[in-house]
Amino acid sequence: MATLVLTVVGTALGGPVGGALGAALGQAVDGRLFGKSIAGSRLADLRLQTSRYGDRIPRLYGTMRVAGTVIWATDLKERRHRQGGGKGQPSMTTYSYSASFAVALSSRPVVGVRRIWADGNLLRGTAGDFKAGLGAFRLHRGDEDQAADALIAADKGAAATPGHRGIAYAVFEDLQLADYGNRIPSMTFELVADDEAPDTGAIAADLSDGLIASGMEGDAVVPGGYAATGASVAEALSPLIEGLGLAVRSTRTGLAVRAVAEEGVDATVGADGLAAVVNGKGGEVRVEARSRADEVPVRLSVGYYDPVRDYQAGMQTAERPGVGRVEASLDMPALLSAATARGLAEQRLHALWTARTTLDLRCDWRALTLEPGAVVTVAGQAGRWRVESCEWEAMAVSLRLARVVGGAVPLVEAAGGESVMQIDRPHGATSLIVADLPVYGDELATTPLVVCAAAGAQEGWRSAELLVKDGVTGGLTSMGGTAPPAIMGYVEVPPVAGAGAALMDRRSAVEVTLLNDRMALTGFRDADLLQGGNHALVGQEVLQFGDAERIGERRWRLTRLLRGRRGTEWAMGLHEEGERFLLLDAVTLVEVPSSELAVGATLRLAAIGIGDATPAEAEEVVEGQALLPLSPAHLRVWALDASGSAWRMSWIRRSRVGWRWIDAIDAPLGEERERYAVSLARAGSVFRAAETSGAAWLYDSDAVGADRSAGISGEVVVTIRQIGTYGVGRSTSARFVL
Predict the structure, then answer these.
(1) Are 555 and 654 within one domain?
(2) By residue range, what is the domain housing residue 664?
(3) Taking the mean position of all CA atoms in its chain, how far away is CA 425?
(4) DSSP secondary structure code for residue 237 in this structure
């Protein structure tokens, strides 16, 4: 009965080769194989992560990419981050989630895991670095003595937690889920089950617990990896045996897997071995038949996994000329090159075409030594033949033979498609900038505008956790995560100090080195600059650049500059080599909550990224530039008479809002009321101070006379500062001779 059942199943799965496999197993192996379950998934299923009870776990060999089965998971862990809420500002609470879970990968011990993908994106690189936040990662290799995972045991209880011995599984502890829609992502793993890919014989021996001998007879393609599938040994091996054109045959020591050689046979059926007369009865001793050509597939496809394309499923197709409509496919859950898979498709199609020809022989008792899988020649018959079945009936041996071709798998040109490999860039260490900015947008600021930006020297840097550092205790308080990587670096050649802030600076050039070579700067047209494009923080000065030229690795030269933007002309003379450079892109900036800011205090921040051994730190004195009025412009001083007995001073008010130039419309005040502080100084000492509510002040004759009587004469410096709602702004000065 075993012979019948396995032969039918084998033929249904793979045609004559499958039938031979089934027959051989049925004749040589007892009922133990029927009860042996080899759990696994077919080609498409290896990419789909599941979590259903009863799902089979693949038995992996060599190196494969597999999704696995979630066998344990916690509920999502929620973390709240409160931002804002200080000084009358609304607060905002954001939420982040993490989860811990375990994924079963192979029902056979493995060597290790390399890369890991989550929702198709690289989560773990070849260097073992993770691209998302993670508390811990552990791989249980599937040894027979492995202990239960401590985290699972803590959740379920030690007594109720198995060690899953013989099963390789991975445990993720507190994986951050923000990048995956706050859910456990679908994962696939580049799993190394063996240091070297085993041949089919070794795989068969492992699957059958030694009932099939280890090792290969003859040369055959050794796939880089294989996922055993199905509910029996025959079903698990069928794709590999069928796809590689191998045979399972009985030997004196048991079953063995062999490749059909290009030449050579196991035996020859001579003319004297044919039984023309048995028990006095004659009959046909040789019946040759050929099936219809249109029953052979006109097109045959082989599905496989392509290592060049990050183990993505591929398909190679072979076609034959002639009649026919039948198309066939063979899924091989194996790691093959595109050329090898194409060669296998060609060879398999050729084998099916050749196997159309069958030969039935009636032989004497000596043919009993010929077992299914043996390759023979027949006297008076061209070609080589494989024994499909051997039966003793009515004192004669009935042989069913199928014609075979053999030889190495042809290597033909084949394209596996476009590569979908993701560039594996390490995350690297974090760099952090904290900056107290002037007003950046068009809205009137009521709290200091302090931003932080982060990026990495490595191109794979993605994000980091931001923390506020207590200046007294050194304690750290979470502020949430960073924004996307900023374009930042340091200044190699600073701009000149003598340029004006009102016109485009065509004399100066800024040369900067960015953190990594993936960062790039682009030029803007004049019209785009006037609309606010290409703002950058260089030291303390905010400027705009119209042209950006790459002049070396990570190095750029910026020209056509607009200087001292947003009232930072005071910083134009403070530049130095090595100072910070930051492209002011709102998408890459995180605003520090006002509750963490105090004007005059030093803000200290730290950032801890995935690749950081120690936190990156940065600090900034909070001046509240966004709150302070800008320095007045166009200060004029003139005497009202030839003797200089009275002087008049006037200036133009500037505003923290209304940055666009609109003809015939003055900039809005931007403060509760208009006030200015006026001071007169000689030799660095202030001798007169006053306040005025308009953009002019009269140094009248009474005041001039009093000051001259007090000995004040010579060069005098007049300084004007606007008094704003939150403090006194920066000054503008002029000189006159009293």
Answers:
(1) no
(2) 633-737
(3) 9
(4) H
Number of domains the chain contains: 3
Are 588 and 671 in the same domain?
no
Nearest to 675 by CA among 729, 623, 716: 729
Positive or negative torsion for Cα 10, 11, 12, 14: positive
Co-location of 588 and 456 in the same domain:
yes
Question: 300-357 pLDDT, tens per residue?
Answer: 999 999 998 888 889 999 999 988 889 999 899 999 999 999 988 988 898 888 888 9
Whether residues 484 and 466 share a domain: the answer is yes
Give the residue from 628, 693, 677, 695 showing the smallest Cα distance to 656: 628
Q: Cβ neighbours of residue 299 under 8 Å, at least 6 residues apart?
A: 317, 318, 319, 320, 327, 328
3-state secondary structure 557-578: EEEEEECCHHHCHHHCCCCCCC
This prediction's pTM: 0.71
Evaluate whether 411 touches 343 at the Cβ level (below 8 Å). Answer: yes
Element (H, E) at 139: strand 136-140
* Calpha distance 634→608 (Å, rounded): 47
Domain assignment present for residue 30? The answer is no
Site of tokens 């979630």: 70
How big is the CA angle at 468 (ends 464 and 471), to the nearest 5 degrees? 140
DSSP string over 713-732 = -SEEEEEEEEE-SSSEEEEE
CATH number assigned to the domain comprising residue 705: 2.60.40.10
